[in-house]
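Worked example 2:
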Amino acid sequence: MTFIRNGLKRLLETALVASGGAARARRHRSENVMILAYHNIVPAGSHAVGDRSLHLPQREFAAQLDRLQQTHDVITLNEALNSSRGVSPVSDRPRAAITFDDGYAGTLTVGVKELIARGMPATVFVTPSFLDGGSFWWDTYADPVTGLDSTLRQKALSDSRGLAPAVDVLASDRKLRKHELPAFARGASTSELHAALEYEHFTIAAHTWSHPNLATLPDVKLAMELTRPLEWLRQFRIRALPMVSYPYGLSDARVQNAARDAGYTAGFLIDGGWTSTPPQDLFAIPRLNIPSGVSRHGFVLRTAGLIKR
């Protein structure tokens, strides 16, 4: 049944693109911006591991960039937040900005390589405590066949507050074992980060210090999770943006106010689709998550605003 449903979905996506529906939708959005949210890029010849939805094959990423180049004006994240075409747009093409969360090695290597090949700008929201080979819990505890257990994820985000050491305890109680991950599926090395920053259109921002569910933290720990990466970013000078994306896309008014108080200029969600320029709320800026497994026509429909998830 799943095979049949997926086949029907692909047929509907193809028909909608062929009918011109995506092109019409894009024209209606020419004054708006879509901020795409990726996670990791899997090098060609390697196999996705961990939470598969977060690990997009390099070949598919390249195809998506090529398609995006045909349909959108790809701009920097700064431009996405500060530019406006006003009532007389100079182009009927919508604008798009490219972002990544976490700071995976695959992103900082082959992902940046694909961006360089096309001269496209991008921003990576980095979690500094996972640099130099750190493994993210949602990857280490994902079953190679069935993926990440939904109950584990729910409890990890609530009871364990999304913090890796606490999730380790939870997983141990459930007798789950860790899976070894290849280098591309772990946090990038410091040298890989510096090499990526040699690309002039590449910038970095914050994804907190240790990737907790911010909404569950007491005020003191919440402040630390936000201020520490902001201090870390200062070493990168003009290549660092004082912006933050909320881990797991989870935030509330208290978290957003804390981000503002910490000194950030903007905060990003993981869903929501299009945003206006300037955004209506600088600390709840929507993005469009692009999971692995999206078909090429599905990508066209998402970036036209016809599919929001």
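The chain has twelve helices and eleven strands. The two ends are 22 Å apart (CA to CA).
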